[in-house]
Amino acid sequence: MPFVRCVVLGTSLLMKPESGTSLTRRLALSISMLLIAGGALVSLAALAYGRQAAQTAFDRLLLGSARQIEASTSVLDGQVMADIPVSAFELLALAPEDRVVYRIVGHDGKTLTGYDSLVIPKENMAEVAYYDLEFGGEPIRVVALSHRFAERAFSGTIQVLVGHTLRARKALAQELVGSAILVVALVGVSMAGLAIFAVYSALRPLHRIERSFSSRDPRDLTPLDVAVPSELTPVVNAINRFMSRLGRQMETTNNLIADSAHQLRTPVAALRAQTELATEESDPAALAKALARIHARSRSLSRLTDQLLNRALVIHRNDSAVRTLVDVRTVAIETVDEFDIDSQGRSRELRLQLPEHAVWVRGDVLSLREACKNLVNNAFAHGQPPVTLSVFAEQGKVILAVEDRGKGMDPQTTSRAGERFLQSEETGRSGSGIGLAIVHEVTRAHEGSLRYSVDEVQGFKVSMVLPGENNASKD
């Protein structure tokens, strides 16, 4: 078994991935090592089988010869007589280089005929026994056959011994082994050729994947559509997922550039014009009004810039941030703590409703907090105070809701909620519409949904419905 262990160890070393090595070469070498190991085992088995087959064939010839000699013996006048026929040695004589010896031993242990040097083992012999001896300086194979006479003139057991040298046996064994090894070698070579062909055929889909990539436009990030075996499907799926993430990142970058160019140009130009007018204003009252407009414009521009950058950050974290267990109550509390007071220094009317026990989701706490802040900002910007931020669990879902006393959005706007700049383009109300787009992106990334509800008494409510994480041990 040491040889087999060496082959297995060599195969495992060949299969270890190394940078810059050929997968085809590693597979070919590994298969070759396995074929060599299998060929060696088959050769050893053929050698044992060849020797056993030759031994069995010639032992049967020896037994047949001994049976004929036994049949030729008889009792005459109380004496055992043997008239050995020539046919008893004809088959053994077909091996011209081998010698045939025989001996008939009487019941008293004396030789009746044959060679006295053809000895019998001391141990008890069965009716038919085979053993090996050395006769005349050459090894021989002997069969001993016991025959019992029970007649009035003679009663006793005689033994017939027939021996044959081993030259023909060895030649037959070598011929059998040689033929078997030749067959194994031919089969091994054929299998090696088929294995190499199979390896190249199995790796051909990899070349199709490479050709598909090299032939497409560098900006084409559509999913890869190549016919591959089922074993390579996970690889293609992983490539497509990576390309999808890369496509989303590029889309985010392009949208950020386009939105910045489109949305920031006008307020920056207006701010510059108002600043130029203020520098030329001599009336203190008019100057104060101009500065107030500049301050309001600056706050609006700052808010728009923050939302553009935050949306890009949220989309980026959707693909890159590690999801952890988050207590949504903590998200709500941190939102309230970070919420700005209004320009006059008075706290806004923001109420907080939380359950006694933790409510867990698996997600990105920064993205969830940003979505929550935008919901609260939208409620104050477009609704009526007081604003209530609540967290609760319902049928395995975690709900983070923001409610105000306003009338809410009309059905047409609600159906398009989540689009960038929807409010500024559709309703003409103040705001960029990016806040709700951020909420939509965060909810979608967390495999949740947005709910909108309007009640004449309670007002307008926006709810983020997220999959709950059942982990009571964290409470």
From TrEMBL:
Its EC number is 2.7.13.3. It holds the Pfam family 2CSK_N. It catalyses: ATP + protein L-histidine = ADP + protein N-phospho-L-histidine. It is found in: Membrane. InterPro entries: 2CSK_N, HAMP_dom, HATPase_C_sf, HATPase_dom, His_kinase_dom, HisK_dim/P_dom, HisK_dim/P_sf, Sig_transdc_His_kin-like_C. GO terms for cellular component: plasma membrane. It is an enzyme of class 2 (transferase). It comes from the Bacteria. Coiled coil: none annotated. One of its GO terms (molecular function) is phosphorelay sensor kinase activity. SUPFAM superfamilies: ATPase domain of HSP90 chaperone/DNA topoisomerase II/histidine kinase, Homodimeric domain of signal transducing histidine kinase. The chain crosses the membrane at residues 27-50, 176-203. Keywords: Kinase, Membrane, Phosphoprotein, Transferase, Transmembrane, Transmembrane helix, Two-component regulatory system. PROSITE patterns: HAMP, HIS_KIN. Residues 200-251 form the HAMP domain. Residues 259-470 form the Histidine kinase domain. Its main location: membrane. This is histidine kinase. The lineage of its organism: Bacteria, Pseudomonadati, Pseudomonadota, Gammaproteobacteria, Chromatiales. The gene is qseC_2.
